Amino acid sequence: MSHGSTSGVFQKLKVPLIALKIVLSFALFGYVIAKVSPRNVWDTMKSADPMLIAAAAGLFLTSSLIGSWLWARLLRAQGVSIPYPKAASYYFVGLFFNNFLPSNVGGDIARISDAAKHAEHVSPVFSATLMDRLIGVLAIGLLAVVASVAVIDRLHLYAIYWGVLIVFLVAAALFASVFNRNILEAFERPFRAVGAHKIERAIARLMDDLHGFRSERGALLAAFAASTLVQISRIYVHYLIGLSLGVRISLAYYFLFVPVLAALISLPISLNGIGVREGAAVVLFQLAGLTREQSFSIPFLTYILSVLISLLGGLIFISRSPRRAIGKHLRRRKLARASERGATPGEGRA
Asked: Which one, 161, 169, 270, 291, has least CB within 10 Å?
């Protein structure tokens, strides 16, 4: 099958697959709601402490600002220097599209597209964003492994513990491969074998950029520290939401369950994890002694909070067109004035 026909097949399947994800998400969400009782969920959520909700919102916003700094630092390590305010605006636009596009990578595509305007090639921007994601998985995986050790005597969830350990080890192995170009070459070989030389060259450039991080160990260390802080903050957001609902359980449960939820909602089987997040949370948090309503409400309220914070990115995005139009108008006026000043001496001589 040719590349064109393959692309055509994917284009035809794209809309049905998105529709299937939407249907599956709302079917799962409806099923979970039916199991926990909408009235009981509402009674649980309306009693939430507004001060703790506000604290959770502030912490989520702070973690996003740290995340944008981390991404900007990795971009700089790839030779793409973007002023922090602009990088933060791109990051928040990405958060917005992560929540409002049916694809799990829509936000990454948006911020790569924005940041690529500051680079000669898209490859270093892509590699910095990929490294951002990889370090994030490594950081949250490490936290989950530590939490597994803390609760293993209370919860005998050995399948989850093994899953967490495997994800962490795979992420660590991928991170370590950045320092060995021969290992990275393995990602190029399949395309070379089938004669897809254009794709092979693009992958080779990406692997070269990733390998370039080997000389940026200070940037990687700073990124890992920042990413760990971001992941801890996001876990504490769930913890504060739980406290606002009157939930009093060990913080170690959150450090174990939140990474598991993050892994599940990253699977491309639902619309932004809707339904999957709430269903998995009901199963997991009940193991720690919570009611169904509390187990549902903690991740759901956290998700609503993240959506509201991401609306800042939506505002930034829709404000671009007017600002660009004003900027063009001002540049035209400046050029017109300059041309008038240049024409005046000539007119006098005439």
From this structure: 169
